[in-house]
Amino acid sequence: MNQDMTKNKVVSVVGAGLVGTLEACLLAQRGYQVHLYEYRPDIRTLEHVPGRSINLAMSVRGRTGLRAAGVEDRVIRHHGIPMHGRMIHNTDGSTRSIPYNKDRQCIYSVGRRFVNEVLLDRADELPNITTHFSHKLVSCKLEKGEATFLNTVTGEEVTREADLLVGCDGAYSNVRKSMMRQPFFNYSQNYIPHGYMELCIPPTPEGEFAMPPNYLHIWPRGKFMMIALPNQDRSWTVTLFMPFPLFEGITASEQLLSFFKTYYPDAIPLIGREKLINDFFSNKALPMIYVKCSPYHVGATGLIMGDAAHAMVPFYGQGMNCGMEDCVVLNELLDQYDDDLAAALPAYSAKRNPDAEAIVDLALYNYIEMRDLVNSRSFLLRKKFDDLLSTILPSYWLPLYTMVTFTRQPYHRCIAKKKWQDRVVKNILSVAGMAGVGAGVVLAKTDSLHTLSCSILSQLSTLLTKTWAAATSVPAIRQ
Ligand code: FAD
Ligand code: EGO
Q1: C-alpha 311 to ligand 1 mean position (Å)
Q2: What is the pLDDT of residue 442?
Q3: Ligand 1 test: best mutation among 52, 56, 112, 173, most atoms within 8 Å of CB?
Q4: Who's near 181: CB < 8 A, 6+ residues apart?
Q5: Confidence of residue 426 (pLDDT cuts 50, 70, 90)
Q6: For residue 229, with 0-12 CB atoms within 10 Å meaning exposed, 13-18 middle and 19 or more buried, which class applies?
Q7: Which residue in 149, 183, 188, 191 sits closest to 167, CA to CA?
């Protein structure tokens, strides 16, 4: 790291959420003079933080980001609850659990607020970060690194010109909005028909978790689905996903109860009948959006990261993880280019865009898969099938979820490998089919047994050749 290149450079980071605060820390560690601006007041001073999803699933990509800022242990040890597998809830109230894998790998349930606070505390430890809360970005000139903020306490407007302006201002990013005027900037946003609502399972009267705590609980029901992640206070945050018209169709308490009796009977006593009714009708179902755009930079002076660059639907638990990995990738490129922003920013866009779009697609694909898994049995079956193959071929057959969640292989390579796996499975199935036909012929014409076994053998050798060809055509398969 070349502190001479950075110590006189000023960076404005917009948004002190999970990604902005981490990015501010990493830039400050490199020596930049960082100004971190946040629309909200300092969440550490608030009793209740308004906004989305209370807890999140943190996996290896997010942890790598936290480690770079020196706070991985603080977050994981003090605020993380390990989840070693999923627990699937059937409509009859019975449950089945499947561990993530044999090596006791796990994901962690972390409170959004805790993670944000640890990162803000870390930012305070770095003398070259100045935080500005209650500052709302109102406009910016990316090609000059300039941004204007409204101080929502005093009503004053302040403008800062910086060497670099980094937009980490979330899915509805204002920084991104101003990128849209740049030529060759491509952008798309889509809403999905589902909304989500957060409910809560309180601790038992004894102050214990009401369900086994070290699992991600899932109620797969086709078009509706529900999950629950544990909180540090031994409550659970339950997230109900369903199409908006269905949310809107539930207008009376009896309707809600009969819906839950049919699909989530075991959840009624856990949440509590009265609390369920209260919380459901005092909450609002929230929309889910995904965003793709490129490039992520403007010259050597503007950049967007995190949800601002690639908001995704939450069905893979990767939004925060991907955003934190963004910070790691940029850090590596700044190392590589000796903090020459004119070189590092285009390299970042080029490197990160295929991976960010890959996980946006994967999350969407999972949304469709989850929607089609109408019952717990189909969910379990699919997971067992994945596990079987990775037991047979442990070194290079990892289930997609495992690759995405427990490795740092680039997301686009996870997709390439999954496509290769699907081709292999298809070939195996087609050979098995042909063998089946062959067996039929054997029964009919026992005297042609020899011919037939020759034909099966030749099919098998074709399969092996194809599999080998496919394996060697994806260089990523052999790490
Ligand atoms: P944000 O967290 O949105 O932060 C943006 C910040 O910018 C905010 O503090 C905001 O106040 C500030 N801001 C906005 N506009 C302005 C402005 N004009 N001026 C100044 N400041 C501004 N991810 C996971 O990895 N695992 C999960 O399990 C998971 N579950 C999820 C469940 C749900 C229901 C949802 C909706 C998302 C989930 N995510 C999950 C995704 C995760 O929440 C996001 O990817 C992550 O919060 C992105 O961080 P960010 O810092 O880019 O944006
Ligand atoms: C066959 C079976 C194919 C988020 C199952 C694919 C997602 C998908 C929203 C879980 C875990 C963290 C999550 C698994 C699949 C978070 C997650 C999964 C949900 C919903 C979620 C898994 C927050 C998909 N990880 N996951 O395998 O455990 O499998 F159910 Cl609705």
Answers
A1: 9
A2: 64
A3: 56
A4: none
A5: confident
A6: buried
A7: 149
